[in-house]
Specification:
With 505 residues, this protein is an alpha/beta fold. The chain has a 5-stranded mixed beta sheet. It has a two-stranded antiparallel ribbon with strand order 1-2. It contains 16 helices and 7 strands.
């Protein structure tokens, strides 16, 4: 390798640093674009792309930070990053650092020191999960007159004769289903802190949490079925087949009621159902008492729901667009480019009325989107007359034309959305978690997972911290909370108490 002089080496290193910074900026831009993307590839593929970009950025930014730490700064950078203050709600521990010589005598002349001011600096510190043991002591007292024995009743327990508090149960289920930590990993982390709890015990605790939360899940479903519009979707979940050591293809269904985009003030909620297969009887049974708009994909199992018009189908433009995009990605043509641009214009029109009441949304769609939809239909019909029916593009367009009434129903229904992204977003935690916990161990395990997902995701939709909520609500339910007051415990009505925050910490 030829020897490089100092100037050439510096130039080479500077070029490498510039290339690294350019790559970081490009990745940041690409990541921001993916996060803004509301349609296109399937949500799972999009999540994977985002995860991969975030990992790449982590490594590059880590290298850049280490390189910057090693630099000797001779002059301030023209673009200093803003210094953010740390959250006020965090507890503070003050460490006072006095001079080595003390605070009384000057080390140079021996004179007396007087206070002049102080400099302070805050750092974010982390402690491991702090486990503790709560020992309940119930003193007994006897009456000197009648010998009656007086003692406080046994406090309610999360598990009869069990050793887990309600906060512990909440921590375990939130760690698994919200933070995607399988129980065996949680057991390993606890063992590292000297707490030897078998994984099967943790599984039993998670099952008990699901049972305690059953009234909440039931009420979420009851309230959700009263909505005028629901979003639904399903995803495969491998389930262990008993006695075979193999997995069967079970399903997890999601049903979401969320009308915030149409200006509603009613609470958003979501519930999940686990089934051993994808038979259409499952959504038909679940929605037998529902009446209104149903936003879903083109799965044939929904067809019976639409026959008597009690439920109106609202098809998903994102699904239709995806089929066109897949063909465009493989072999772009002027037709595919034109179709994608026209659908993008429909989405841009929707942004103008997001969050507005249904009547305003409907009028805006009639004034702006209706003509665009009719023009798009003409382009599709003309293309179908030219294309071979067996071509991939023709099949994609036929998919949309067969569902045209359902695709265009949003023009007349201001509450409807253009796509089913609300349900797809509700499925993303399952898609991420599935990579970690891999499969459901049994039908009961899948049902427990569906119940806990229902509570956690409804909490998040209502800006409620799931772990504090679950710990508090389970304790109240176990303590015979009256059924007439269930509504007070629902995520959209629940307010944290100071003691709840401490327990969940």
């Amino acid at each position: 390798m030829p020897f490089l002089d100092k100037d050439a080496l510096i130039a080479q290193l500077q070029a490498a640093l510039a290339a690294r910074d350019t790559l970081i900026e490009a990745l940041r831009l690409q990541l921001a674009q993916l996060r803004r993307q509301s349609f296109g590839q399937s949500s799972e593929k999009l999540d994977l792309q985002i995860e991969q970009l975030e990992l790449s950025l982590e490594e590059l930014e880590g290298e850049a930070t280490l390189a910057d730490i090693g630099k000797t700064v001779t002059q301030p950078s023209p673009r200093q990053p803003a210094v953010r203050s740390l959250p006020e709600h965090l507890p503070r521990e003050e460490r006072r650092i006095e001079p080595e010589c003390g605070s009384c005598t000057c080390p140079d002349c021996g004179g007396d020191l007087r206070p002049l001011g102080q400099d302070s600096d805050e750092m974010l510190d982390a402690l491991p999960v702090q486990w503790r043991v709560i020992r309940h002591v119930r003193p007994k007292y006897s009456c000197r007159g009648c010998e009656k024995i007086v003692q406080a009743p046994v406090p309610v327990k999360a598990i009869t004769r069990g050793k887990a508090s309600f906060a512990t149960l909440a921590h375990i289920v939130v760690s698994k289903f919200d933070h995607h930590l399988p129980l065996y990993r949680q057991a390993e982390m606890m063992a590292a802190q000297g707490i030897d709890i078998d994984r099967s015990t943790l599984a039993g605790w998670a099952g008990q949490a699901s049972r305690l939360l059953d009234p909440i899940v039931t009420r979420i479903r009851e309230e959700g079925l009263k909505a005028a519009k629901l979003h639904t979707d399903d995803t495969p979940v491998p389930m262990l087949a008993p006695g075979k050591g193999k997995t069967a293809q079970a399903r997890l269904w999601v049903y979401a009621a969320d009308d915030r985009a149409s200006g509603a003030t009613s609470p958003a909620m979501v519930w999940y159902k686990f089934t051993p297969d994808r038979s259409g009887v499952h959504p038909q049974t679940e929605l037998k008492d529902f009446a209104g708009l149903l936003q879903a994909d083109g799965y044939a199992g929904y067809e019976k729901l639409y026959r008597d018009q009690r439920i109106k189908e609202v098809a998903c433009w994102a699904h239709f667009r995806r089929k066109i995009f897949e063909q465009h990605q493989a072999s772009p043509t002027p037709l595919s480019t034109d179709l994608l641009q026209r659908i993008a214009e429909l989405y841009r029109a929707e942004e103008d009325v997001r969050g507005q009441p249904p009547d305003i949304r409907r009028q805006h769609r009639q004034d702006h989107s209706k003509a665009q939809v009719e023009a798009l239909r003409s382009v599709i019909d003309n293309a179908l007359r030219r294309l071979s029916p067996k071509s991939a593009m023709a099949k994609a367009l036929i998919y949309g034309r067969k569902r045209w009434d359902a695709l265009t129903l949003f023009l007349d229904e201001g509450m409807a959305e253009m796509d089913n992204n609300i349900a797809e977003r509700a499925m993303r935690p399952v898609a991420v978690g599935r990579k970690n916990w891999l499969f459901a161990g049994s039908k009961a395990g899948g049902e427990h997972a569906a119940a806990i997902y229902s509570v956690i995701e409804t909490c998040k939709l209502n800006a409620v911290e799931p772990q504090a909520y679950i710990a508090d609500v389970m304790e109240k339910i176990a303590g015979d909370w009256p059924a007439s007051r269930w509504d007070e415990l629902m995520p959209w009505n629940w307010k944290p108490e100071p003691k709840t925050t401490r327990q969940a910490a």
